[in-house]
Write a structure and sequence with these properties.
16 helices; alpha/beta; 16 strands; five-stranded mixed sheet; Nucleoside Triphosphate Pyrophosphohydrolase; binds S-adenosylmethionine; Rossmann fold; 462 residues; 23% strand
Length: 462
């Protein structure tokens, strides 16, 4: 960015605070993207403080030198991400503290130059906490004081290195872990080593009362942008500070620690913010801490499925996705209607999901119980009966788009035994591979095998 591109806005001084160096400087890049967006007639948000911070940064460097913002492909991609991220996280936070969210506390970890406390319409009674490194907090607070900025929420600011114990200091300024909290970790994890990122997310979990929420950028959403950035010298001041973050799939990692994780995809974002604002693969994670009542007293759901094998022993499976389990492969079938017999229900559901009306059914093989998050009902404990069946190998028949959408089926396919043994997503039941081996070797069991309750979270699954 050059001087003449500096967005218009109130003048800003630093009141003598030095400009943050190192990782703190990355917050200026975010402010730059927000300032430019705020000047657009079709802006997704208005952050008048972003340009105040930028002007103060220029002043602190005895400028006319403005923060670097050359228009490279990498910067354009990163700026587009920063804008979308800001808009989505604005909405996330306001939803979380709204009547359907119920969060009464907001914690902005590594708040940087985030001015949400000053620019969003917060409901009465919300308390907002901001944490960042001392140098950053010093700069920000002095600039805000100089600009006579007034928060629109009860705001608490504290200095903390988020690689260390920040829970104690947070409680000391009035944070109550017994109240539901909306957490924001925006633009931080990439600057942390894996162990520090894991410790931070664990600490958030420990401090999260039922109903608390956490939002993150979805894994892979930034893959291309980061590749471009790594190759672009203009981005080097930020990229050389990257430490990789958690380094594991965030959604599965969080699910393994008791969060329900909803994935917000490109399509939803396009509907909300406009197609031209959402780059390919973009998405966010919205993690929610279930209430103890929800987890402890799951309603019982009865279901039945068919293990459909072709003459070569391949099995037909459907890929589903839910907030508790994530992506998983299931046999065709589903929930029983009131009074419906399990075999009749399994056949009815299979016809709806495949269009196959000639599947030959056999004996009941297995029963099991497991937990998942049903889109309409919430957390349920499903009691499932599985019957043997056979059919020729073929694709589903007819247009099943509506049925797939209604049942949350993402895709379906046949698996040979070898292909099945290589599946990386969760299988339902999780022991499907050895169960099929036994079935091929010994034939159907004389009595159905009861696998009992099978937990989702098994060691090593994250
Ligand atoms: C890219 S900025 C994002 C700022 C802010 N979340 C936003 O999106 O506007 C990264 C921020 O992380 C902060 N940060 C980096 N490492 C930190 C640490 N170990 N402890 C506290 N803050 C840290 C930096 O000071 C900086 O403000």
């Amino acid at each position: 960015m050059t001087d003449d591109q500096t967005p218009a806005g109130p003048a800003g001084g630093t009141g003598g605070a030095p400009l943050p160096q190192g990782v703190g400087r990355t917050a200026l890049g975010v402010a730059l993207a927000r300032a430019v967006e705020s000047a657009r007639p079709d802006r997704l948000f208005d952050d008048p403080y972003a340009s105040v911070f930028l002007r103060a940064a220029v002043a602190a460097e005895n400028g006319p030198r403005a923060p670097r913002g050359e228009r490279t492909e990498a910067w354009a991609a990163m700026a587009a991400h920063l804008v979308l991220r800001t808009a989505y996280f604005d909405d996330y936070l306001l939803d979380a503290v709204g009547p359907d969210g119920g969060c009464t506390q907001v914690v902005l970890l590594a708040a940087g130059l985030d001015a949400r406390a000053f620019r969003l319409d917060w409901p009465e009674g919300v308390r907002l906490f901001e944490l960042d490194l001392p140098e950053m907090v010093d700069f920000k607070e002095r600039v805000l004081a100089e600009a006579d900025a007034r928060p629109r929420v009860e705001r608490h600011v504290l200095t903390a290195d988020l690689r260390e114990d920040w829970a104690g200091p947070l409680r000391a300024v009035g944070f109550d872990p017994g109240q539901p909290t909306a957490w924001l970790v925006e633009g931080l994890l990439i600057y942390l080593e894996a162990a520090d990122a894991a410790a931070l997310l664990d600490r958030i979990g420990e401090l999260s009362a039922p109903g608390s929420r956490l939002a993150l950028v979805r894994d892979g959403a930034l893959r291309r942008t980061r590749e471009l950035a790594r190759r672009d010298p203009v981005m080097a001041p930020a990229t050389r500070l990257w430490r990789g973050g958690l380094g594991r799939n965030h959604a599965q990692w969080l699910r393994g620690r008791g969060w329900l994780v909803h994935e917000i995809g490109e399509r939803q974002l396009r509907d909300r913010y406009g197609a031209e604002r959402v780059t390919e693969g973009h998405g966010f994670l919205l993690a929610v801490r279930p209430s103890p009542a929800e987890s402890a007293e799951r309603p019982r759901r009865e279901a039945a499925r068919l293990l459909v094998l072709d003459p070569d022993g391949s099995v037909f499976l459907q890929l589903h996705h839910d907030a508790e389990v994530g992506p998983h492969w299931v046999l065709p079938g589903g929930g029983l209607e009131p009074g419906e017999a399990p075999l009749a229900g399994a056949v009815r559901e299979t016809v709806e999901e495949t269009g196959w009306t000639d599947v030959v059914t056999g004996p009941e093989l297995w029963r099991w119980e497991h937990d998942y998050h049903h889109a309409d009902v919430g957390l349920v404990r499903q009691h499932e009966v599985i019957f043997l069946a056979s059919a020729p190998r073929r694709d589903p028949i007819g247009d099943l788009t509506a049925s797939f959408a209604a049942d949350g089926i993402l895709s379906c396919r046949w698996f040979t035994p070898k292909e099945l043994s290589e599946v990386t997503e969760v299988l339902w039941p999780p022991t499907l591979v050895p169960l099929l081996e036994d079935l091929r070797r010994d034939g159907p069991p004389a009595e159905p095998i009861d696998l009992g309750y099978v937990p989702n979270r098994q060691s090593g699954t994250d």
